[in-house]
Specification:
By secondary structure, the protein is α/β, with parallel strands linked by helices. It folds into two domains: 2-116 and 302-341, ATPase, nucleotide binding domain (Nucleotidyltransferase, domain 5, 2-Layer Sandwich), CATH 3.30.420; 128-297, Nucleotidyltransferase, domain 5, CATH 3.30.420.40. 42% of the residues lie in helices and 18% in strands. The protein is built from ten helices and ten strands. A hairpin with a 4-residue loop joins strand 2 (12-19) and strand 3. The longest helix is centred in the C-terminal third of the chain and has 31 residues, at 233-263. The structure holds 5'-O-[(R)-(carboxyoxy)(hydroxy)phosphoryl]adenosine and zinc ion.
Length: 344
């Protein structure tokens, strides 16, 4: 089966072609980071307009690279939510048009299911069931993944997502956008323990998390050093970055460990943009290995948003989940969409 994947939920236009017979995955990505940088965050209207410009050329690029004609496609998978409504509409519009023109099924995919299943594209891959730590710009959740389509929420952030806290911390420290990689890099120059920040909800006994208090603590620390205005400011900023990263990573890794203990499972899958974080990877590796578990990640280029994870999730949905009989429901975008509401 050859399935085209389309991702346009936020600020990345991603297209991929997955050929299940050969296992070949060809994918192409256009990042809008440069477009939004001046605004310090994603501007939804600009994002939608750029998806319109980029999507069809990317489809052509991927099909050419895979030496696949449009008529050779068996299905089209597209992110239907959650995400920015206008941005999702661009991807869904193109997918619906292709499906109609080629008379092929269009599979609506939940963006987070794409992230969740993407470690299955790596070698070695986890086997069901496993615990997933989903850490992106909009979500921070721990899930028990029993099988494709069967997801149980174990705990989640009660306020900001971890990625959002990274991005806001970057902004407060005067770093660029997106903030995660920059904060992570700066933290490597900071001293451990020089700036002590809280680890919200680390001892709450449940699997929920909170990052907004940590963000406020960063703001207080930055204001304090700016109003003092003494010493090596760059070094002190690095200490704040280090304090933030150490706190966020400790909370995430403790909660992930607890999720394995509570479920009795041994495999932890980490997905979403923050999963690319080096400090988080190091902490999880030692904590989970010490407890006799194993950590899995998507292939390096598939950690942040991309079309490959959507093509793969669409393939899994089409081939491994029972299809409802009766008329095919119309494709609709779902800017808000709870992963645990997914009907299997
Ligand atoms: O999954 P993703 O690409 O998009 C969403 O679905 O949100 O995640 C983007 C988030 C951003 O907040 C970005 O700052 C963060 O992932 N991120 C990182 C790193 N790379 C990306 N955070 C920490 N360390 C990184 N290396
Ligand atoms: Zn994402």
């Amino acid at each position: 089966m050859r399935i085209l994947g389309i991702e346009s939920s936020c600020d990345e236009t991603g297209v991929a072609l997955y050929d299940s017979a050969s296992g070949q995955m060809v994918h192409a990505l256009h990042s809008q980071v440069d477009l939004h940088r001046a605004y310090g965050g994603v501007v939804p209207e600009l994002a939608s307009r750029d998806h319109v410009r980029r999507l069809l050329p990317l489809v052509d690029t991927v099909l050419a690279q895979a030496a696949c004609g449009r008529g050779d496609l068996d299905a089209i998978a597209v992110t239907a939510g959650p995400g920015l409504a206008g941005a999702l509409l661009v991807g869904c519009g193109v997918a619906a048009a292709l499906g109609y023109a080629l008379d092929r099924p269009v599979v609506p995919v939940h963006h987070l299911e794409g992230h969740l299943l993407s470690p299955l594209l790596a070698t070695p891959a986890p086997v069901f069931p496993f615990v997933s730590l989903l850490v992106s710009g909009g979500h921070t959740q721990l899930l028990r993944v029993q099988a494709p389509g069967r997801y149980e929420l174990l705990g989640e952030t009660l306020d900001d997502a971890a990625g959002e806290a990274f991005d806001k911390t970057a902004q407060m420290l005067g770093l660029g956008y997106p903030g995660g990689p920059e904060v992570s890099q700066l933290a490597q120059q900071g001293r451990a323990g020089a700036v002590q920040l809280p680890r919200p909800m680390i001892a709450s006994g449940d699997l929920n998390m909170s990052f907004s208090g940590l963000k406020t603590a960063v703001l207080t620390a930055v204001r304090r050093l700016e109003s003092a205005g003494t010493g090596d400011m760059a070094a002190q900023r690095a200490d704040v970055a280090r304090g933030f990263v150490d706190a966020a990573v400790e909370v995430l890794s403790r909660k992930a460990q607890l999720a394995l203990e509570r479920t009795g499972l041994r495999q932890l899958v980490v997905a979403g943009g923050v999963g690319a974080n080096r400090q988080l990877r190091t902490a999880l590796q030692s904590a989970i290995a010490a407890a006799g578990g194993q950590v899995f990640y998507p292939p390096a280029d598939l950690c942040t948003d991309n079309g490959a994870m959507i093509a793969y999730a669409g393939f899994v949905r089409l081939t491994q989940l029972p299809r409802s009989t009766g008329p095919v429901p119309p494709l609709r975008v779902r800017p808000r969409w709870n992963l645990c509401d997914l009907e299997s």
